[in-house]
Amino acid sequence: MSQTVFIQRMVLRNYKSIGHCDIRLLPLTYLVGQNGAGKSNVLDALRFVRDALAGSLDNAINERGGLNEVRRRSSGHPTHFGIRLEFRLRDGREGWYAFEIGAMPGGGYEVRVEECAIGGIRKGPFFRISRGQLRDSSETSFPAVTADRLALVAASGLTAFRPVFDALASMGFYNLNPRLMRELQKPQDGRLLRPAGENLASVVGHLERVAPDQMKKIKEYLQSVAPMVCDVGRKAIGPMETLEFHQEMAGAKHPWKFFANNMSDGTLRALGIMTALLQSNTEYSPALIGIEEPETALHPAASAALREALVDAAGHVQVLVTSHSPDLLDDQSIDADSVLSVVSEGGETKIAQLDEASRKMLHEHLFSAGELLRINQLAPDRQAIEQRPTTQAELFGEARQ
Ligand SMILES: Nc1ncnc2c1ncn2[C@@H]1O[C@H](COP(=O)(O)OP(=O)(O)OP(=O)(O)O)[C@@H](O)[C@H]1O
Ligand SMILES: [Mg+2]
Asked: Is the pTM of this model over 0.85?
């Protein structure tokens, strides 16, 4: 199976609880760690980039409560935060996109530096902007830039930067909510599942039309989680729509039909997760999807089916999940590199690959990642955590390793 990695490496500085992190992501990466360790903050950093590009930087900051909530609070009072994403586009070209946002003395914020390069500086399309001024670019004409916006939004009008913009702006993040999935929904085009699954009926309807094979797969996974459910489809109710489930009943000649509002939390969540994962094989594929705790509300016996769906999806889209589930990780074939350990030390989040002892146990199949999680032994590599660069330089310029 082909494997898809869009974001290969992610460097964060002073983003929420994360002082510094430099991590590599695989086609399927699990973020594990205690409550409040900072797992969701890692996903949120990627979501921030998506929000700032697909919407506006102002909205992305404001909906998180303002710059003071986005940059890390600490005794050192950092005034800025930064994100660097090293990517690989679907056409195979590699590059990076990075920015640093800082507080202005009189209030407000500015984009201090923003850089995008595909194929390396002076080898392919690139730009470097600081404080609202274009400093360098491969392009002879470049749209006007200002310090309160990300220039990649304007640069997406140039064909050279469009693929980077499209891939970053199409990343999908899911924290499914059965209550919203139960409500009658207004029909929409259903190309992309919304963050809480609130347009699930439209997406199922869309997949039935454009990708029936994908829909068949989703139903198969759903059935391995909830064996009585034999079918599901979009159902119009007047001007609204919902999902209709068919459920086998002992003694009944025909399956019983239930609308979404009578289905169980676990069934709805499972359908939402499978749809989020497998919608990606259509022409509207996101390049990466992040899912918060996909195991929520699922019986432990459903974990194998969920894991299989995650692995299956990772063949088409990069998948990043947060998880607390030993059952989900209870599989000897999970690669040690695909598990990142997130810990909070003195209120600061540290993220790294697993330490040598944990890796050895996984390699030698002495324990599965799930068993180590259950006994709280998925420790991060100390050396990786303690390697802290002292400057902001690591966010910009060519990759150093
Ligand atoms: N601007 C900030 N500066 C410092 N710390 C912050 C900032 N914003 C949030 N935090 C910290 O981040 C923590 C939450 O992290 P996060 O939501 O990522 O945890 P989590 O690992 O996803 O936990 P859970 O497993 O419970 O979902 C909060 O407890 C808070 O202490
Ligand atoms: Mg969380």
From this structure: yes
